[in-house]
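Before we proceed, please read the two lines closing this message. Report back on whether the structure tokens fit the sequence:
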Amino acid sequence: MPAPRTVLLTGAAGGLGTLMRGLLPAYGYTLRLFDTVPLAGEPDAVTADLADTEALREAVRGVDAIVHLAGISLESSFEKILAANIVGTHNLYEAARAEGVPRIVFASSNHAVGFVPRPAGPVPVAPADLIPVETRRRPDTYYGLSKCFGEDLAQLYWDRHGLESVSVRIGSCFMEPSSVRMLSTWLSPGDAARLFDAALTAEGVGHSVVYGSSANTRLWWDLSSARALGYEPQDDSEQYAEKLLAEHGELDPDNPEHTRVGGPFTTDPPRRP
């Protein structure tokens, strides 16, 4: 796919959106920003909700691709998740279809497979034991369930309308990991930008599902489908391991929260990480 020139970034005022606003332009993208929060000083920003289908249609008009980060990023009530993450994502896909946008990079989540057991055994995990993208989805929350919906919606719009998508099951994208679990799930901001760039420019993606993490020594999932897009992660969380392990200790194999991919989201009720 030719490198897109103008990319709509939804959720541009959020944590990940703010990071990508600073990093993606270096790859040659002109960003049009979309969020419910006004972005002062940004000349091409749309302040609207995903429920505003007219504003959304105008926002997608003329862009070459979309990076869809908007929505609720933690567990909430089903009604709120339904409106923001499920109906809102459908509204975005329908606007993109109507305006002929060829590709969406959809921010899915590791919480779509949150109840999948994490790989056990020594570090690093043997390649054969890494969790594949084909593993059965086991969402850990309404939030995770909404990401399963988004992946299926992306598949539907590819099969029915030819709208390409890459669903990125993002791990934990922060400046640095803050827990022992994040030593396995961390996606550095720099690697996130590399992955989004690969997802925007790879040829013939159809609908592809990939895991989003850095090249962590303690990695849990298989990055081969992401690498097939041209993604080459450059960072590793292991530089933070000594400090975090000294503070928190190793993951406890008798603690269900430590043995499932979704970590604290798998508790009842789900706990904030």
Remarks:
- Residues 15 and 174 are 8 Å apart (CA to CA).
- DSSP finds nine helices and seven strands in the chain.
- The chain has one domain: 6-266.
